[in-house]
Structures are given as C-alpha cells and as structure tokens.
Amino acid sequence: MADPGQRGFSPVQRILERYLPVWLVVLCTVAYFWPRLSGVPGDPFLASKGYLKHMIAVTMFFIGSLLRPEELLDVFHRWPLVLFGTLVQYSSMPALAYLFGRLMGLDGPFLIGVLMVGCVPGAMASNVLTLVARGNVSYSVSLTTSATLLSPLVVPFVMWLTVGQFAEFPVVGTGIELLFMVVLPVGLGFTLSQLSRPWHKVGQRLGSIVANLVILWIIAVVVAANRDTLQQITGPLVGALLGINVGGYLAGFLAGWLVRLPVPMRRALTLEIGMQNAGLGTTLVLALFPDQPQAAVPCALYTFGCMFTGTLLARTMAMFPAPGQGSQPEAA
Length: 332
Fold this sequence. Notes:
- By secondary structure, this protein is mostly helical.
- The chain has one domain: Na+/H+ antiporter like fold, CATH 1.20.1530.20.
- The chain contains 15 helices and no strands.
- Helix 8 crosses helix 9 (137-161).
- 52% of the residues are buried.
C-alpha cells in the first residue's frame, strides 16, 4: 500500500498491473479447461484450494511491507476524512449488495456471495488506479489501510446484518479469521520492513507483484472448483454485481461531493468505495461456507468486473485534470 507515485514500477509489475484483466481471463480459462488441456495427472488449482487462507496471509504480509510510517501517520493526521470514507464504504456497499441481491431475486449460495462482496474492505488495486486517475493517492492508501485494520471488527458485524439473515456463520470466528489473515500479517510485514533494510527493499520490489499474482490464482481456483456451476451464471447475478459496482462508484462520488472534498480526494474515494477486496471475500466464503463453494463465484466475478470498470473509470478521470492540477497525479 505504499504510494505508487513514490516508487518506481518494475517492468514485470507494470505489465502485470496494466494488463491485469487480460491475465485474469487467460488464467481462468486455463483453470476452466485444465482437465482437457493438461496431459499431466492432478489439478494444481484444486490442489491449492486448502491453502488459500495462507496465500491471503502472505499477500497481506507483503502489503504490510509496502506500508511506510508516514502513511500510517496520515491515517491519524486526517482521521475525520479517513473515518468518513471508511464509514461510507462499510455502510453503502453492504446496503447496495443487499438491495441488488434482493431486487434481482437471488437466493442460496449466489446471494451469500453477492452479500459477501459488499461486506469486505477495499482493495489495494484502488491505490494504483487512483494514481492512473490523477487522484490523491495518499488519501486512497489511508482509506485502504483504515478499512483493512478495522475489518476484524466491522466485517463480522455487517455480515451479521446481511448474510446472517440467510445463513448461519460464526461471528466471532469471522473476526478471528480476519485478524489472522489480514491484520496480523500486515502488522508483521510493516514491522519487519522497518527493522530490516534488506527486507524493506525486497518488500518494495515484490509486494505488489505477489499481491496481484495471488489474487489471480485465487480467482482461478474458484473457477476450477466451480466448473459446472459457472454454466449456471445468469443475467440477474451479473446485473446485481454490476449494480453494486456502479452504485459504489456513485456513493463515493456523491459522498465526496456532499462534504466538498477536493476533486483529487473525491476521485480516490470514488474508486475506493467501488473496488472491493473480492479476493479476500472469495477466501473468506470458502472458509466460512465450505459446503457451498458456489458462494465464491460472485466474489470471483466481481474481482474481474471491478478491475475492468475501475480501469475504464480511472482512465476517463485522467482525461479531465482537477482544478489547479498539473500533469502529475496528486500524492498528498
């Protein structure tokens, strides 16, 4: 979650992030057709299903290694605006998920998955796309950091309000899962990065690459685990996910407009609200509802969808410089 504007992109990272939707389609296609494409025994996608929680923890460890002390201090320095953005996210997105899930007549595992999309915190990808949009990157990082650190407390609560109406799940256990999968690895990564200069360099170089590769693999695993279910994807499911995504962008924009945030900060809030950490949601669904793997499908679809729409939105925003803004994105 280090400010992308302050660190250079390696060629691998640049290619990976610029064409992330392409890699997502390619890897998911391979995962879907693996039994027919591969002549080797076994299925690496299904074989790694039991290790998804560990993969998320490793990802969050690297993300913590990307954090800089000033970014954490920034959360506290402008805590009213950061808290405001976090509240908008954790209120509007679950509400939108519930609204569109019910409006589209979804039920069973697909409804659980749609609701989970609305409950998880924001994604690191929003930080990169805020840079593309010439928005306020440090505000985006602050929002992602705040939502991530609060997730063990807030996510179980909003899940209780939404998912809890349709399925039983361990409220306390969910908080513990998030604590060990998200918050503790972030804290450990940050601490090690500050104590060890060699690891700091490794984390800065590999953090974003590892995070993106893990998300790609997690979604591919979901595709492999639901090869038959994917044929049952319907228009209402796609419509619900699109409604949540577009509604999230609108909620972020309107909230920023109502409190008169500067345009660069408004762009950061818009992208942060609409782009959820559906990779985390996917892993959480599989951990909490192991007997309903189909519930992970909406999270996987949302990951691809929000990356696609977010990229288009960010590039559109970049075409219109904010008042008083030059050719460079605003980082602070």
